[in-house]
Amino acid sequence: MGLSLNSTSGKLLASAALVGAAASVAGLGTYGAFTSTTSAAATVSSGTVVIGLGTTGTANNRLTVAASGIVPGDTIQRAVTLSNTGSQNLAGATLTTTATTSSKLDTDATNGLQMVVDSCSVPWTEAGTAPAYTYTCSGTTASVLATHAVIGSNLNLSNLASATAGHADNLRVTLTLPSTADNTFQGISSTVNFSFTGTQRSGTNQ
Fold it and tell me: Could you tell me the residue ranges of all domains in the chain?
């Protein structure tokens, strides 16, 4: 009986040892794997959208030149160059005009100041005595903004060469006080601010 018990005990110990060895081998297997690594690098840079006006006070930007003593039927012409100096084409550009000093000249959309914007394929020829400038085009003219009340928000500008990067537009802004302006327009003044906004081209594959 004693021999039989000893023999069984030996078998159990041997089985436990084998199970332990198998577990050890299985554990070693979880840490082994084949690997391979490769890589590539790409540089991505963004474009720029930049528009600007000509130097203030020069023939490239007369928008800051004031006009005074106007009466119904008078016109005010000012030239300005709008340039696309960014690296990207534009989907378009808009003009927003606001009155920092306001009067019926800008609040009366019918009898107040009316605005027209035209472009010339070459720089406008400036004439007249400051501030009463006049401009003629020796090239081709195009309508950029049809007649509109002097105050407007996000007015779409058409036929712009500056929609293409590196190009510029020779613009002439004309303000007219209609002949329908009555005596209530006497002795008043407005200050009109012109703000141009260029919008990037549509997204595309690069």
Answer: 1-30, 51-200
